[in-house]
Amino acid sequence: MAKRTERTGLHPTSLPKARTGIPGLDEVSFGGLPRGRTTIVCGGPGCGKTMLGLEFVVRGAIEFNEPGVVLAFEETVAEMTRNVASLGFDLDDLVRRKKLFMEYVHIEPREIQETGEYDLEGLFIRLQQAVKTVGAKRVMLDTLEALFSGFPNEGILRAEIRRLFRWLKDRNLTTVVTAEKGEGTLTRHGLEEYVSDCVILLDHRINDQVSTRRMRIVKYRGTRHGADEYPFLIDEEGISVLPITSMELKHRVSNQRISSGVPDLDVMLGGKGFYRGSSVMLSGTAGSGKTTLSSTFAEASARRGERCLYIGLEESNLQVARNMKSVGIDLDTWVRKGLLIHEAWRPTQYGVEMHLLRIHKLIAKVKPRTVVIDPVSNLINTTTEREVQSMLTRLIDFLKSAQITFLFTSLTHGGAALEATDEGISSLIDTWILLRDVELNGERNRVLHVLKSRGMAHSNQLREFSLSRRGIQLLQPYIGPAGVLTGTSRLSQEAQERANAVSRQQDIDRKREEIERKRRALQAQIDVLKTEFSAEETGLERDLQEFQKAQEQVQLNRAQMARSRGSDSRAAKTGSTK
Amino acid sequence: MKGKKPKNASTRSKASKASKEAFTLRLYIAGQTPRSLAALSNLKRICSEHFDGDQYRLEVIDLVKHPQLAHEDNILAIPTLVRSLPVPIRKIIGDLSNTDRVLVGLDSDGALRRAK
After folding, report:
1. Is A522 among the domain residues?
2. How many domains does chain B have?
3. Fewer C-beta neighbours within 10 Å, C or N terminus of chain B?
């Protein structure tokens, strides 16, 4: 029975939380910091503890209508106000509107002499006064450990700190206490002993001269929380934390298909193009047309009215725009219409986490339907493959969950296996298009190939393509007895075949003439024979007529003779019939 | 018991030599706790033993009644005795049970002797 209630007590919704308003932090903490309790934020110097605490209080006042109190032991109020003014927080205004109370508690050890028993009731009274003034719900103590330098009697101090945390809890104040990281302990003076609800550790490390900030929730009693180290960033908008991966693969999937911008390529991709929300990689060697193909995709997206975010990590946006004009892709028009947001920066400008955060922020601002990054392989120069892989994983994850179609290019170096990407991310990619040069007969020709494309019947053909003023043209594949040919070989083969065809045609024509001639000769012979025949026939008839005439003449002569002899006319008659 | 703050103690020389009230002391307490009462009686004893009556001015501030005053002398510990004149400011925290330390704290720069 007791066990059961305990278990229900662990339910994530049971612990009330106070949202920080810091992008990402609320996600990794599943809702914010424990409400009415104290959270320790610890870390080395310059790790951003003060910023985090201050943002928690200030955002609480601005975004959640929870007034706050800041008790600063290290920085004066003026300094703090100045520090966050660049983030767009006007603390003076908040103080005027009684949303925020800030007080600098100065501790000067040289002024203080101890004699006998004391307590820190003065601090409590000041805090009480501050909380009352603005009706505070949130408190930040920065850095409470400064007390240890001012009050040498550690026994009293520890008892008072314990009392302070209890006091804050009793008043249901959600508190952030910053503390310096200690050697082997989370905080130098072991404050985590007194606060066991939530401890956040911040870290600032430098790898290859590139700084990365990381955050880890060491402990969060009574609730689940992300346990990883999360990179975070402090920039002109304050802190943003990057949840690395969502734990589950539960993205929405779309059956909608979108064009690659090249109709022939769409045909190769099961006839319809990419799936919306899928990730597409174009990999290829230098000069194989990656940027052109990605620009084509971007343009097609803009043409459909879907905003595209194009991030160049190699060439400036002006340069890309100029170069693409030469192949008939006018990016400027779409930029002017606001359908293409073209950003470019150097890969070495930041650490990989900063890149990711910057991309995240851009996406949040631009709200694109498609994102292009050209090329991701440049990031490797700044960091390790592992980190780039992890970054891309997170990015793809994020884009998928937002149903944004993501196309990126990757440069394969000559000599390396074409199908082995540097980033080792093939498992993350839905559609992988390989661009390559085919070298034959002293020339290189561009071919593309759909290496894989999940969920569609894609072409298995290598297709040659050309870049012309009309953009990318896929050429009809030549497949003949000698295999698939490209470029000049294809042209010469085709010419050869045309020549063969012509000569065969000529043969046929010649034969046809021959036949015709023969037919004519035959006809002539027939005519001759007919003539001869009819001549003979005529001769025969003439002979026959002459014979009859001669016969008649004999008869006539015989009759005349009979008449002249005066014999029987009957006898003459009979004789003539014989 | 409750004196007024010497608002016109403008310069150091005036304060330490010309003015009779060379010392301005403020004792911060929070309510009538045993510790506060002990500090007050200890302080009174020390003052009567070591100062002439016109040499100092003593002010007792109860932060429970006037919490806003804690800010003024940046009080954290209770009880705190603040010597605001002569400058520099000195703070003695605790119930003032150790007379020698109180005197050292008040007089570490020889201010008492000069005043006498």
Report:
1. no
2. 1
3. N
Q: Last residue of some domain: A428, A460, A476?
A: A476
Q: What is the CATH number of the domain that holds B78?
A: 3.40.30.10
Chain-chain contact of B74 with A112 (C-beta, under 8 angstroms): no
Domain harbouring A298, CATH code: 3.40.50.300
In the block, tokens 């605001």 appear at: B84
Give the whole-angstrom CA distance, residue B58 versus residue B42.
Answer: 13
Q: Is residue A447 part of a domain?
A: yes
Among the listed residues A240, A236, A213, the one whose alpha carbon sits nearest the alpha carbon of residue A89: A236
SS3 for A499-561, per residue?
A: HHHHHHHHHHHHHHHHHHHHHHHHHHHHHHHHHHHHHHHHHHHHHHHHHHHHHHHHHHHHHHH
Residues 6+ apart with CB under 8 A from A5: none
The arrangement of strands across the sheet holding A174-180 comes to: A100-104, A68-72, A138-142, A174-180, A38-43, A198-207, A210-220, A229-235, A238-241
Is residue B91 within 8 A of residue B108, CB to CB? The reply is no
- Tokens encoding A256: 């909608």
Residues in chain B within 8 Å Cβ distance of A129:
67-68, 70
Report yes or no: A34 and A198 within 8 Å, Cβ to Cβ: yes
Domain membership of residue A433 (yes or no) is yes
CB of A43 closer than 8 Å to CB of A201: yes
**Looking at A210, A241, A272, which one is the last position of a domain?**
A241
Please give the structure tokens belonging to residue A479. Answer: 């497949």
Best CA proximity match to A141, nearest among A39, A33, A23: A39
Which residue in the set B63, B75, B94 is minimally distant from A114, CB to CB?
B94
A471 and A342 assigned to the same domain: yes
What is the complex's ipTM, to 2 decimals?
A: 0.79
Number of Cα atoms under 13 Å in the Cβ half of residue A337: 16
Domain range for residue A451? 257-476
On whether the CB atoms of residues A354 and A206 are closer than 8 A, the answer is: no
- The pLDDT profile of chain A, 578 residues, written as one tens digit per residue, is 344 433 433 444 568 888 888 888 888 888 889 999 999 999 888 888 888 999 999 999 999 999 999 999 888 889 888 888 888 888 899 999 999 999 898 888 777 788 888 888 888 999 998 999 999 999 999 888 888 888 888 888 888 888 999 999 999 999 999 988 888 778 888 777 777 789 999 988 877 666 778 888 888 887 777 777 888 888 777 888 876 555 455 667 788 899 988 888 888 888 888 998 899 988 888 888 888 999 999 999 999 999 999 998 888 888 988 989 888 888 888 999 999 998 888 877 677 777 887 888 888 888 899 999 988 877 776 667 777 777 888 788 888 888 899 998 888 765 555 555 555 677 778 898 888 887 777 777 888 888 888 888 888 878 888 888 888 888 876 666 666 666 777 777 788 888 889 889 999 999 999 999 999 999 999 999 999 999 999 999 999 999 999 999 998 888 888 888 876 555 545 544 44
DSSP class of residue A116 equals S
H-helix or E-strand spanning residue A141? strand A138-142
Residue A488 falls within a domain, yes or no? no
* Cross-chain residue pair A125–B88, CB shorter than 8 Å: no
Q: In DSSP terms, which residues pair with A405 in a beta bridge?
A: A370
Cβ distance A118 to B93 less than 8 Å, yes or no, reads yes
Put simply, the answer to whether A122 touches B104 (Cβ < 8 Å) is no
**Chain A closest-CA separation from residue B54 CA (Å):** 25
Residue in chain A closest to B30 (alpha carbons) equals A121
Rg of chain A, C-alpha, whole Å: 49
Kindly identify which residue of chain A lies nearest to residue B99, measuring between CA atoms. A115
